[in-house]
Amino acid sequence: MEYLSVMFAALPASLAYGLNFVHPLLMWVVLGLALYAMVLGIKAKKTRTADAEERKQLIKGQFAKRHFLFGSIVLAVMVLGSVSGMAVTYANNGKLFVGPHLLVGLGMTSLIAIAAALSPLMQAGNLIARKVHVGLNMTLISLFLWQAVSGMQIVNKILTTP
Ligand code: HEM
Ligand code: HEM
After folding, report:
1. Among residues 152, 120, 144, 149, which one has the least CA distance to residue 38?
2. pLDDT-based confidence at 1, cuts 50/70/90?
3. Distance between CA atoms of residues 123 and 73, nearest Å
4. Separation of 87 CA from ligand 1 center, angstroms?
5. Hey, which bits of the chain come out as E strands?
6. What distance in angstroms lies between residue 156's CA and the mean position of ligand 2's atoms?
7. How does pLDDT run across 72-116, given as a tens digit for each residue?
């Protein structure tokens, strides 16, 4: 850990401060992408459970494929965003704040990783894997809304602390 603090200490203060705003902006984009992925997932389920006639129409939307793509993007950026949020916090404070935003953030990152790991089972048609996937990710979306509020409180603190 020693070399890490030396490395961060070498960062110009203004750069370290400016980096504070990359994570919040990025995470608002991820929230939008996650909501879009959710809509695609719901449409994928609609396609899977529709009757033959309706299915013919819905299948053109390629919702399952697009959901998998957008889900994967959300997974990748959430992992990077979470880790970089911790890095920037450490660079500016020389420590992490073991508070709700950190713990819920790590929890969310774990949830989406586990949900994504169910993909091969879901693609093999496992219904339990699908239910667990949806349960984990709906919890994720709820936590995300809360995380946005606690995140903006941190932004506010950074802006108002001299
Ligand atoms: C719109 C939503 C969000 C906002 C506005 C926000 C804002 C912030 C801010 C301002 C910080 C302080 C460090 C920095 O400035 O880079 C931070 C830290 C952090 N954020 Fe977020 N965040 C959001 C969403 C998320 C999400 C979705 C995750 C994870 C899934 C996450 C994980 C973290 C973690 C792990 C830290 C380090 C906290 C610490 O060590 O004290 N954030 N966030
Ligand atoms: C953003 C959060 C996410 C939400 C809200 C969500 C939601 C859903 C929903 C509602 C379904 C339909 C289940 C059914 O057919 O009964 C589904 C299916 C699926 N999801 Fe997600 N998901 C999310 C993220 C992800 C991620 C990160 C991945 C993988 C990287 C992923 C991969 C899949 C796959 C492979 C299926 C099965 C599609 C098929 O029928 O072939 N999802 N998801």
Report:
1. 144
2. low
3. 18
4. 10
5. none
6. 34
7. 999 999 999 999 999 999 988 999 999 999 999 999 999 999 999
User: Which residues form ligand 1's pocket by a CB distance below 6 Å?
Assistant: 20, 23-24, 27-28, 31, 78, 81-82, 85-86, 88-89, 96-97, 101-102, 105-106, 108-109, 144, 147-148, 151-152, 154-155, 158
Residue 78 CA to ligand 2 centre (angstroms)? 16
Substitution candidate for ligand 2 out of 58, 133, 141 with most atoms within 8 A of CB:
133
Ligand 2 pocket test, pick from 31, 65, 68 with the greatest ligand atom count within 8 Å of Cβ, gives: 68
Q: How far lies 138's CA from each of 45, 52, 60, 79, 93, in Å?
A: 14, 28, 26, 18, 33
Work out the pLDDT band at 161, boundaries 50, 70, 90: confident
Closest to 35 in 3D by CA, of 85, 79, 76, 73: 73
DSSP structural state of residue 125: T
Element (H, E) at 61: none
Q: Determine contact, residues 101/147, Cβ cutoff 8 Å.
A: yes
Residue 23 pLDDT > 80, yes or no? yes
Give pLDDT, residue 162. Answer: 76
